[in-house]
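ok posting inputs for the flavin-adenine dinucleotide job
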Amino acid sequence: MKTISLSCDSAALWTSYVDEAYVREVRAYVSRVIAPEADQIDRDDVYPVAIMKDLAKQGYSAVALDAALGGRGLTYRHAVAVCEEVAVASAAVGVSLITIFQAQTMIRLFGAESLKQRYLPAIAGGLLCSYALTEANHGSDIRTLDTKARLEDGQWVVKGEKHFITSGSAAEFFIILAETEKGVSVFAVPRNARGVSTYEGTNSATFGLRNGPHMNIVFDNVRLPADHLIGEEGKGVRQAVVVLNHSRTLAGAISLGIARAAFEGALSFARDRVAFDKRVLEFQGIQWYFAEMLTDIDAARLLIYRAAEALDNQEQMARWGSEAKLKAGTVATAVAAQAAQICGAYGIMENAPFGRYLRDAKAYEVAGGSNEILKNTIVKFLLPVSGLKAGK
Ligand SMILES: Cc1cc2nc3c(=O)[nH]c(=O)nc-3n(C[C@H](O)[C@H](O)[C@H](O)COP(=O)(O)OP(=O)(O)OC[C@H]3O[C@@H](n4cnc5c(N)ncnc54)[C@H](O)[C@@H]3O)c2cc1C
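and the output
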């Protein structure tokens, strides 16, 4: 069987929006360490423990965290560049980075000083994390929850169950939402706390973003110290949304990486494949597909790096992060489908990566904030200038 050569020197297409030397270093690392494992991770649906521990060692899982807390003290633009480059090889590794980033951000923004000192250096050092909001009966709408927490003798006691939790098969630490007397609140839960267990439910196996089964996490009267309540009791939804506003830009960068990989794969194929005595890339109809894809990817990239700038400046993060994830997510799915089409039968083969790109891209149009929820957020910035009130 003819194997498809997917090597193409198209990296020059992707202008660097942070210092080039840094991006070059990340690219070299990704192609040496992550790319060779990417297909296997997806096929076996396993959490890439060794890679994630090594990414932490290289400083790639705490890029924007202060150096005093074990991070690299760089900008969010650097963090976005890491996610983009990682996802060119493996969106599963990318999404494993996102859940670490979410846990880190929640503690950094809202955690007590004791919690920051205890967990942030540990996370920078490779502690594997999940961000667990969703339950069987509560997905987009997390204003009420079935997981409950109550204060008892100065400790929090948590009871309930979370579903669809990315990185849950290996996570050593969870950020969770649970409802208390005052409303939805955020808690830090070490995996080894008594009463925590995980299991693979009927809905744990996904067709995309396969970094291990998306586990169900059970909290059976788990007792937590008082400072493991993060931020203000009852303000958990607001805090969770603030963290999502940070992570959506990075999630968009994962989609962008998928789109780039699909584009580059199709470009190599079209360059080498001959039909009607011509290289496929010489057909104008095919060239136009590439022109459209490149335009869409560039548009998504500009939006994502604009959103990263918004994070660096802490301005209108909800708007830019939502726009960036929405645009990159839809572009990635469209580009992955188009790339497969350009490769003809070879694009549809199981030994080609386009199925993985398509599955990962589609999954990210739901995970971490569905397209519909992102649009609802964007509209909130539109209504005040239109003179209409929300809900009218
Ligand atoms: C691959 C993957 C990984 C995930 N990882 C995690 C994780 O790590 N942690 C976690 O907590 N959760 C995780 N989830 C769950 C994910 O966050 C939820 O699936 C998502 O929030 C949507 O919730 P739902 O599936 O219950 O859909 P529902 O909320 O039931 O929505 C169903 C449909 O209605 C739409 N909809 C809902 N409300 C509105 C509205 N107001 N306006 C317009 N449309 C609306 C939705 O967009 C969707 O299309 C993951 C999901 C997937 C697929």
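notes: The mean pLDDT is 95. Residues 99, 130-134, 139-141, 164-166, 206, 209, 214, 363, 366-367, 370, 372-373, 376 surround flavin-adenine dinucleotide (CB under 6 Å).
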